[in-house]
Amino acid sequence: MTALLVRGGQKLTGRIEPSANKNAVLPVLCATLMTDAPVTLRNVPDITDVNRIVDFFRELGSSVTWDKADRRLEIDHSTVLSGASATLPQAMRASIMMIPGLLARLGEARLENEVKGCTLGAREIDPHVAVFRAFGAEVSQAGHQIVFRKKGGGEAARMWLEYASVTTTENFILSALTASGTSQIVNAACEPHVQEMCAFLELLGARIIGKGTSMVSIEGGHALGGADYTFIEDFHEIATFLALSAVTGGDISVRNAHPEHFDLIDRTFAKFGAEVTHADGWSRLRAPSQLKVEENFTSHLITKVEAAPWPYIPADLLPIFIALGVRAQGQTMFWNKVYEGGLTWHTELSLFGAHTLLCDPHRLITFGGDKLAPATVTSPYIIRVAIAMLMVASSIDGESTILDADPIRRAHPGFVDNFVSLGADVQWVS
């Protein structure tokens, strides 16, 4: 068990260069399986899931060179062995996005029934099965594995998703690349990381219309080439460091080349009395003297933060705003419309002395502004919940411990080093 020891109470100040978005890096890595041409990826973070995918590529026989210091990853799948194992790594949700590439290369892929990721509740695989079957794959059970087999050449497909799932959208796009004709997906996810995967595929020569919208068309059957691609900054990490500034009374600037992604995020910070400014490629939050929840003109309603598929506030960012809700004077309702297991960790906040009320699996109310005390709390296996607990601990004078804080390493390389560079007193302990 790895924990974070936090001595809180410091006002954090300084500048941060954020890493790339894990949710963009992993799909792009999976997408490299669609080409035999060499690919160079830059600004690649040294995180757990990237290491797992790189290890899997090497097992396949791919040529991989990773300069971690330079954050440059060079991949050549033309050396993949014809008899390579097609059993995917079980410990990460991103495994499922390697299936289109493995079907195209090896004609088969195998996935454990319970592919894992953050413990956010049910993560169903059925929409993915529907995608692969739509493109002609055969899907069957074999013991504890699900087996995907390529049947025929694959024809174009049209699919209207019940839910705008990111990974389902990405799997549809990847599968459509090898199908003959034009495929279309309706109610497609349009998050910045989905757009980034599409931008990478377009560099390879893919023909995609409508990226960033809910209706995307893919003209398949074209050979893909190589590319030299640099990942953009992770909007999750940018928002996280801005929130750390707000909760500690600090003044933090974060590099951000895409402030156009932040209109609603900025508005959500404003609900707690915190203002974000964007200038010259940087985003800055100078904390107010006191966080205070914005009052509604509709006086009988509680101020709400609603998380749902983009362009709503992302569910992944909800925990950092819950941390602000705990510290801000006033009441806030947080509504996670995506995951039914995304709010159960709120009981750990009570160990700090926070007052919260879980209305149902999807809605939580914080009654903020109470005096909090240091505590030892335990994080579930959810990346930004561990960070939210770290945020609350950092805002309290005294020594706190965040147990099971390892999920942070899944998405944010050097997060603690960056944190310390801002003036925090925090360290990893066993």
From TrEMBL:
Identify the InterPro entries for this entry: Enolpyruvate_Tfrase_dom, Enolpyruvate_Tfrase_sf, MurA_subfamily, RNA3'P_cycl/enolpyr_Trfase_a/b
| UniProt keyword terms in alphabetical order | Cell cycle, Cell division, Cell shape, Cell wall biogenesis/degradation, Cytoplasm, Peptidoglycan synthesis, Transferase
Single GO BP term: cell wall organization
Annotated Gene Ontology cellular component terms: cytoplasm
Q: What is its main location?
A: cytoplasm
Q: Which GO terms describe its molecular function?
A: UDP-N-acetylglucosamine 1-carboxyvinyltransferase activity
- Name the pathway it acts in: Cell wall biogenesis; peptidoglycan biosynthesis
Localization, per the record, is: Cytoplasm
Please list the residue ranges annotated as the Enolpyruvate transferase domain.
6-418
Q: Which reaction is the catalytic activity of this chain?
A: phosphoenolpyruvate + UDP-N-acetyl-alpha-D-glucosamine = UDP-N-acetyl-3-O-(1-carboxyvinyl)-alpha-D-glucosamine + phosphate
Q: Which family does it belong to?
A: Belongs to the EPSP synthase family. MurA subfamily.
Question: What is this protein called in UniProt?
Answer: UDP-N-acetylglucosamine 1-carboxyvinyltransferase
